[in-house]
Design a protein that fits this description.
The chain is mainly alpha-helical. It contains 23 helices and no strands. The longest helix is centred in the N-terminal third of the chain and has 21 residues.
Length: about 475
């Protein structure tokens, strides 16, 4: 059982917005002579500064492609390790981020970071932000891809950047912990056929940290915990987590079927008490969901009936089934009506079974199987006259799986009622089917019928004594 906890579905929103505007672009245009002398920070060359001035009007009209074209024209003319190159790669990364071209943003920021690692161009705060962006964008690319090799490459990159980020972050927020746990989870399950249990364990630990650091944990954190528990096949804690989620988000309809199926999975136990207990939990879950307007499809209703029956609650199950068939909340077909009759019998409610099947007979006037079932119930109660009427009706309607047997049953009912001529006629009809040659009962019944007819006819010819 899962709650569709795929790597993509667990992707968190970016933890920091990337807004390309004057605040990100214009500082790069400041020349060395405009800087405070004491600080003596690095600055771009005059040639690069002149090119940067062309970015201002493009930035105002949000012409990201035009800005990228200006920056790309500078790249071949620059020293690969220069401050100019560092600024250009950093700006290109932000522009690609704005365009949601995350793979190109990752490439540009990787180059900027490589330069800064040698030249120390990033101050600590900016470097942390860049590492976080790199982790996020790499993760975004990995989870968006459907190619396992690409997923693994980008997610591994994201993990590397994130570990470096965390090494300098003393008090990461719950969101950061959640993001890292998501990343570890996706690393662990990138190959579904070979889940990395060690990484999964690390992800579980990070989720626990995030939960401990949150006064009001976010829904996504619980969903991530649930996905990890499901991978660990921990049904008990999965159910507890789903109950916790639903206590806070009862109107989130997708959680109810997941909780229901978890309890069903827990019912696969060798202990009969636990089996019954978890079936009852599954029943309660579905009824709680239905009270909120969820899990109310005809299939869901039928599942609830089957749960009651599996739990041995035939009376409750049949009542729900009968009501659903009548009001249309359960599909009204022959199969379900026949099942209703059977379940009423299991609950020792034969008369209600007959009544319900008569309703079905009226609804499906060309289906003889329903009338046959009614006849069999009557026969079981030794009501042979009523049974014979419905055997005849079943044969008239047709659609029977084994018509030969119905003729044989009719013959037997007529014989019991001492209507020997009718029994003989039914036997003659039964003998037209090839199955009659393999049936040892029919010849015996035929012999008994013929003997009874002979005795009756002999009695008619005898002269009454004076």
């Amino acid at each position: 059982m899962t709650i569709n906890a795929s790597p993509t579905s667990l992707r968190p929103a970016l933890l920091a917005g990337i807004i390309l505007g004057c605040a990100l672009v214009l500082p790069a245009l400041v020349r060395a002579e405009d800087q405070p002398a004491a600080a003596n920070p690095p600055s771009v060359s005059e040639k690069t500064s002149e090119a940067f001035r062309k970015l201002t009007p493009l930035n105002e009209t949000k012409d990201w492609d035009g800005m990228l074209a200006v920056l790309d024209s500078l790249v071949p003319t620059l020293d690969p390790m220069s401050y100019d190159m560092f600024k250009i790669q950093d700006m290109k990364a932000r522009l690609y981020g704005q365009k949601e071209q995350y793979d190109k943003a990752v490439d540009a920021w990787t180059k900027a970071l490589a330069i800064s690692d040698v030249k120390k161009y990033y101050d600590p705060k900016d470097q942390q932000q860049t590492l976080l962006f790199l982790a996020q964008f790499s993760y975004q690319e990995g989870t968006a891809s459907k190619v396992p090799a690409v997923q693994q490459t980008y997610i591994n990159k994201a993990a590397g950047y994130f570990k470096r980020y965390l090494a300098s972050e003393q008090h990461p927020s719950a969101d950061i912990e959640m993001f890292y746990a998501s990343l570890l989870y996706n690393q662990a399950v990138v190959d579904p056929a070979k889940v990395d249990q060690s990484l999964l364990k690390q992800a579980h630990a990070e989720v626990n940290k995030a939960l401990a650091a949150s006064i009001h944990p976010k829904e996504g954190l619980y969903v991530l915990l649930l996905a990890i528990l499901q991978q660990e096949n921990d049904l008990v804690h999965s159910a507890e987590t789903l109950e916790l989620i639903l206590s806070q988000y009862p109107t989130k309809k997708d959680y109810w079927p997941s909780l229901w199926s978890t309890y069903l999975a827990m019912a696969n136990d060798k202990d009969p008490e636990k089996v019954r207990e978890n079936y009852i939990r599954a029943i309660n879950t579905m009824e709680r969901a239905q009270a909120l307007g969820f899990m109310n499809t005809p299939k869901d209703k039928l599942n609830l009936v089957n749960l009651y029956l599996t739990a041995g609650q035939f009376s409750k199950g049949t009542d729900i089934l009968h009501k659903g068939l009548k009001d249309g909340t359960i599909e009204s077909d022959v199969k379900n009506w026949l099942a209703l009759g059977y379940y009423y019998q299991q609950a020792n409610r034969d008369l209600e079974a007959i009544s319900a099947l008569k309703e079905a007979s009226a609804l499906f006037p060309t289906n003889g199987q329903i009338d046959l079932t009614i006849a069999e119930i009557y026969r079981g109660k030794d009501l042979f006259k009523e049974a014979r009427d419905f055997y005849r009706s079943a044969l008239k309607k047709g659609g029977l799986e084994k018509p030969y047997l119905v003729w044989a049953y009719l013959a037997n009912a007529s014989f019991t009622l001492e209507d020997f001529d009718d029994a003989k006629t039914a036997i003659e009809q039964a003998e037209k089917f090839p199955e009659s040659g393999k049936d040892s009962f029919l010849p015996q019944l035929k012999e008994a019928v013929n003997h009874a007819i002979a005795e009756r006819d002999a009695q008619k010819t005898q002269t009454p004594a004076p």
